[in-house]
Structures are given as structure tokens and as C-alpha cells.
Design goal:
mainly alpha, 2 helices
Length: 107
């Protein structure tokens, strides 16, 4: 049943993520040509075709751009957002995937 959770990002024909500048995606993370509800075998086609397209598109987008200054400001923003929402947690970073590990239950 987990294959129903595949995909999610809308991509253009150049594998760019729609609405997010300079982000390219292929394979399981992208809806791709089969949409977000597809079987795993179809993702091989996606990753081969759109993986190459995503790589070429990302390389073209990066040409002539100077690297920016690396910071951890996104982490400070994440901490502020959690604090403003009243969320207290030991988790240090945002997670992109759900935690599927089995939790021990008390009897």
C-alpha cells in the first residue's frame, strides 16, 4: 500500500519543480509521467528519462551563477516557527518522510 504515497511534486517538462526556482526532481519524489499513484516498475522509466532531464536542467540553471553564502539561517527559521506554534520536540531538523518504525506500546 505504500506505493500510494509515491510522488507528490509537480514537475515541468524540464523536470523543474513547479513553483520552486532552481529545484529539479525525478523518480519517486515526482509525480512524473505516470502521476502520483503508480506502481514501482513504472518509476524506472521516470528515473532514467527524467533523471537525465533533471540533471541537464539543473546543470543549465547553475551555469553562470556564483555560489551564495552558506548559512544555517533556515534552521533558525525552523526553530522560530516551531516555537511560535508552541511545538516542543527533541527533533533537531525537519523531516521529509514519515517515521514508519514500529513503536513499542505499553501493555
Amino acid at each position: 500500500t505504500l506505493h500510494y504515497q509515491n510522488g507528490g511534486l509537480d514537475i515541468g517538462e524540464d523536470a523543474s519543480v513547479l513553483g520552486v526556482q532552481n529545484l529539479f526532481a525525478a523518480g519517486e519524489v515526482a509525480g512524473g509521467i505516470h502521476g502520483k499513484n503508480r506502481l514501482m516498475g513504472n518509476s524506472l522509466l521516470d528515473i532514467i528519462v527524467f533523471g537525465r532531464i533533471a540533471g541537464e536542467s539543473a546543470a543549465n540553471a547553475a551555469k553562470g551563477k556564483a555560489p551564495g553564502r552558506l548559512t544555517l539561517s533556515h534552521m533558525k527559521k525552523f526553530d522560530r516557527e516551531r516555537e511560535d506554534a508552541g511545538i516542543s520536540s527533541d527533533i533537531l531538523t525537519p523531516k521529509l518522510l514519515p517515521d514508519y518504525t514500529r513503536k513499542e506500546t505499553e501493555a
